[in-house]
Amino acid sequence: MVDAVVVGTGPNGLAAAVVLARAGLEVEVYEAGDSVGGGCRTAELTLPGYRHDVCAGAHPMAVASPFFRMFDLPARGVELLVPEVSYAHPLDGGVAGLAWRDLDRAVDGLGRDGAAWRRLFAPLVSRWPELVALAMSDLRHPPLDPGIGVRFGRRLLEQCSPLWGLRFRDEIAPALLTGVAAHAIAPPRAFAAAGVALLLGSLAHAGGWPVPRGGSQAIVDALAAEVRRLGGRVHTGRRVDSLDEFAGARTVLLDIAPAELLRVAGDRLPPRYAAALRRFRYGGAACKVDFALSGPVPWRADGCDRAGTLHLVGTRAEAIAAEKSVAAGEHAERPYVLAIQPGVVDPSRAPASGHTLYTYAHVPNGSDRDLTATVTAQVERFAPGFRDLILATHVRTAAAMPSYNANYVGGDISAGAMTFRQTVFRPAPRWNPYATGLPGVYLCSSATPPGPGVHGMCGLHAATAALRERFGRHADFPATEPAAPR
């Protein structure tokens, strides 16, 4: 007999556990892996002393999401290191777009497109807490600040319409924006991709895109430590195969994918809801390649050596073509590659003079291709001499992703295709997207609003619903009201 059970220790599961424990409930947390973290783990994947983030690497939401702003990671010993350049987008010929954290500096570097970049982002950057509150809501209630909804909505409609190509005149700025949109692993002009570009692009000039000292594991370790401090128990190496294991719990929160919910619930789910989960679509996937290097990546373009994150694909046209190939179930000859070089701010990731490079390439769902050579070539394209620095590599194909994390169905690290329908109605069209139809059982994974990312908000919203409906209590963490910016 226990008040609450949480299954899964990704950021959302642990956020839910913290909220429930703070409300005074007895909480038990179960994790199939040998350590907490889900997609937020850090491990020595290549060589001893080289610490690699296994999935999530850069964390705009660690300083921006309402949950983490109230949880206060720095107060719990997590040092968030912020690169001067949030992200860079190199092009052939030794030039690159640089999203400096300082918006004015970014504008100055974009030439005649600088003013257009300012008009696009400045109104959002100036109101970033309200923007984040809108984007990180349960997507069921009107924004607390209608003004930010109008600002964001106008830009969103532009960026997912034929008008998206009219704002810029040169090549660098549109490529820079398209690289951020591709984080959604969807065609860059899709609704979700455009929203991702505007949100993450704004945060690049607000709090920046930090990396935690020592690795992403620091975030989930801090969350797990808080659960234990509040009296909760965290069990690792405990795979859950049936909800029957928790028949005595007053509430159960599941940080799992819809496919996993179907597995552990068996035939207990209401038929209509179960049918909706079976229709849930999984999207494009990732092939993750990690590198241990003898030195920093020799980027050809100035400024790339100061960026925490880089988008390696080339022009806007090349990015569109690559993402359309993945959406069509095909491998792009030159895929979109996201790269993170934490060593620009965190020397603790590798031994003296060494560096780590985190990359993943977008591939079709279920792909079993090892893209180590393809990714190496794409990095070499923008950093001649890169191959000579490689000491060791580690690859995890999309097909192998579920063996690491069952939530990554077919290698989909977004926990569901980022279509319009599955952005607004995750995982099924219903007013309470966290309720499963089983009394006291809630879904709190990235398959629920607001969707993927290390923000903890799916867990916060689900825990808030559970507290209200099962215990008649309110959460200490308000789920909708934005905290004051730091």
Model description:
The chain is an alpha/beta fold and 486 residues long. Helices cover 33% and strands 16% of the residues. The protein contains 16 helices and 16 strands. It has helices at 11-22, 66-71, 103-108, 114-125, 128-135, 146-159, 172-181, 191-204, 217-229, 258-265, 271-279, 316-327, 372-382, 401-404, 420-424, 457-471; strands spanning 2-7, 27-30, 42-43, 52-53, 80-81, 85-91, 95-100, 211-212, 233-235, 249-254, 285-293, 307-312, 337-340, 355-363, 390-396, 441-443. The strands form 4 sheets. The chain has a 7-stranded mixed β-sheet, sandwiched between helices. Strands 9-2-1-10-16 form a 5-stranded parallel β-sheet. The longest helix is centred in the last third of the chain and has 15 residues, at 457-471. The protein is globular, with a radius of gyration of 21 Å. It starts with a strand and ends in a 15-residue tail after the last helix.
Which blocks of ≥5 consecutive residues have pLDDT under 50?
Answer: 480-486
Morphology call: globular
Please report the number of helical segments: 16
Strand order of the largest sheet: 7-6-12-13-14-11-15
**Biggest β-sheet description:** 7 strands, mixed
Strand content: 15-25%
